[in-house]
Amino acid sequence: MEVCRDRRSLREFRSRLEGSVGFVATMGALHKGHLSLIEKSLQENKHTIISIFVNPTQFGENEDFGSYPRTLEADLALCKKAGVSAVFTPSVEDMYSTDEITFNPPKNMGYILEGFDRPTHFAGVIAVVLKLFMLVQPYRAYFGQKDAQQVLILQKMVRDLFLNLEIVPCEIMRDDDGLALSSRNIYLSQKERETALCIPRTIALVKKEIDNGEVKVDKLKTLALESLTQSETTLFYADFFNRELKPIAMIEKQKSIFLIALKVGKTRLLDNLWI
């Protein structure tokens, strides 16, 4: 496994590769969710490249950029054991210059939900992912469906900018207790984690109602809000949309999504149900 610590070494490594290249962009603190993306890429491509970069531009003021978990040596060992071809671990200085050209997210998709509470977030995501795509030149890029809004915006970016690659959404991975895997889960105390289990319980409740034939969003949303409302949490949103992130009144199978953002203690947690 090659460890590329700057753009130059990554480009040199990439130029030697023949055949399909899969790519997984991460901010490190790797867990089973990341491993599932890596494994899918390994199955579908001749080569797999991983990036580990805590991207400052997607963090807003008073967010956890400084405290975000950084476990590089353990991450590299995990990637080597998994069998990836290379890991890209650049510095901030190598990825960004001064007075940069910037891209904004789409107005309708980028400033609702996560973009409403974190209005600079998706501009930062687009900036770093586009840079990484240009460096890695992947055939396919793998992203977890837990960050559903991010996946949908990146798919739109690929379409709108005519990028020659495929965004592959991958199934949400969950811990034994049902909580969606996230690097930020380490922030939760035991009591907070127990409180956070209202999220997967709500997901399961909504899925059961839909499986039983309920298609009216107002009824499903009322059910979800009753399940999520607890004194120890702050609910940002729990709502239903189509895959273009437009609000819907009725569920359409294979076209709808239920999105949740909830703060437990100081930790913002995301989850969703692709319907």
From TrEMBL:
User: Which sites bind ATP?
Assistant: 27-34, 144-147, 181-184
User: What is a GO molecular function of this protein?
Assistant: pantoate-beta-alanine ligase activity
What domain of life is recorded for the organism?
A: Bacteria
Which compartments does it reside in? Answer: Cytoplasm
Show the Pfam families listed in the entry: Pantoate_ligase (PF02569)
Against SUPFAM superfamilies, the record matches this protein to: Nucleotidylyl transferase (SSF52374)
Instruction: Provide the binding site for beta-alanine.
Output: Q58
Checking Gene3D superfamilies in the record gives: HUPs (3.40.50.620), Pantoate-beta-alanine ligase, C-terminal domain (3.30.1300.10)
Pathway membership of this protein? Cofactor biosynthesis; (R)-pantothenate biosynthesis; (R)-pantothenate from (R)-pantoate and beta-alanine: step 1/1
Q: Name one GO cellular component term.
A: cytosol
Recorded catalytic activity of this chain's protein? (R)-pantoate + beta-alanine + ATP = (R)-pantothenate + AMP + diphosphate + H(+)
Stretches of the chain forming a coiled coil according to its record? none
Q: What else is known?
A: The reaction proceeds by a bi uni uni bi ping pong mechanism.
Indicate the quaternary assembly.
Homodimer.
Q: Which NCBIfam families match?
A: cyt_tran_rel, panC
PANTHER family, alphabetized = CYTIDYLATE KINASE/PANTOATE-BETA-ALANINE LIGASE, PANTOATE--BETA-ALANINE LIGASE
**What family does this chain come from, according to its entry?**
Belongs to the pantothenate synthetase family.
Protein name, entry field: Pantothenate synthetase
Species this chain originates from = Helicobacter cinaedi CCUG 18818 = ATCC BAA-847
Q: What is the lineage of its organism?
A: Bacteria, Pseudomonadati, Campylobacterota, Epsilonproteobacteria, Campylobacterales
